[in-house]
Amino acid sequence: MSTYDSRIDFQQELRIMGQAARKAARKLALLQGTSKSRCIEAMAESLFDSSSQVLEANEKDLAAAREKGLSQAMIDRLTLTTERIEEMVKGMRVLCGLPEPVGKVESTWIRPNDLKINKVRVPIGVIGIIYESRPNVTADAAGLCMKAGNAVFLRGGSESINSNIAIASALREGLCCCDMPKDAVQLVPWTEREAVNEMLKMKEYIDLIIPRGGEGLIKAVVENSHIPVIKHYKGVCHIYVDAKADIQMASRIVENAKCQRPGVCNAVETLLIHKDIADEFAPKIAEQLTEKGVELRGDQGFCRLAPSAKPAREDDWGAEFLDLILAVRVVDSIEQAIEHIADYGSGHSEAIITESKTAASLFTESVDSAAVYVNASTRFTDGGQFGMGAEIGISTDRIHARGPMGIDELTTYKYVIKGSGQIRA
User: Do 81 and 214 belong together in one domain?
Assistant: First the structure.
């Protein structure tokens, strides 16, 4: 993070940007679906045409990352290639074919006085996205917000500043080509923390903040924002293997949920095993996961059955490892498993493996998370896997949006009431 530049009046500069975004949002709200699709296509085409400039800017970010000694995982997240840019372009074009979310009438009813009340989906307005590392979020967020009729106010991480500026510039050029205000896509070009602090105070210009990144970023945004925030907290996901589970099915699901891509928020982090099946299942899954390079951290019951496991510490139970590490506990009952999830879970995704309809029903009704699975991997908590197209993130909130946030979750609603001269007595 660069040091604060006292020569920049962040408050004044950001509020000028905010006013322009608000004005653009009003125009976007009136666009029909076909017009929005043309704009998204123009943005995608402009991004594709600007590939060389984007790659050149990305190389500057990568050089700085190497000089700072950032991890290889971080460098991989920062890296753009021709193929990754093409994926970004493809993702934006997919949005054009999705159903139009704005203007959808969710429900209609007629009152005894003949007033006809319609509940209609409308854009939220201006959405602020604060994110880290991955420069592809710049294009993804802009496309999603455009599809839902919103202007977007972007603030990426300092490590990807050059890439983000190049991508946003291409997207704004595309907007100009379809006769739309380029200020529908705004990127904060400063890396100073003060710029974020001022952005979080702009409640008259920004309607919603969505942070995407590590737990530290999200906590900082929540603590400092004057604007409503939809939180995408960590994914401490659980799988509970019930006494009546199919052993082979449970083995496949646990391996997939932990090993297929361990560094994502919907990977399983804690495995709970019913005591009645532990003698058979625990040694088998321990051997299977160890062969895949997974470090197992278990309670006393699991370590007795799987000597290769390390004793778990208390802070392992609530940890989002994002790595080939799995905490494992043997529980006495399904009720104890549910209680463990309530105590340590983050409200993201949980699964039960069972052949019992009674157990499945109790689990799905009792576990309070955004996604609850029966006999399936937690790795499916994803906008694309849910058939929603792209997503802005996975919300662990309970209000407005929960789980994968697609274009529908980037809208709100209003009531349109049609009368014929009615007045209230």
Answer: yes
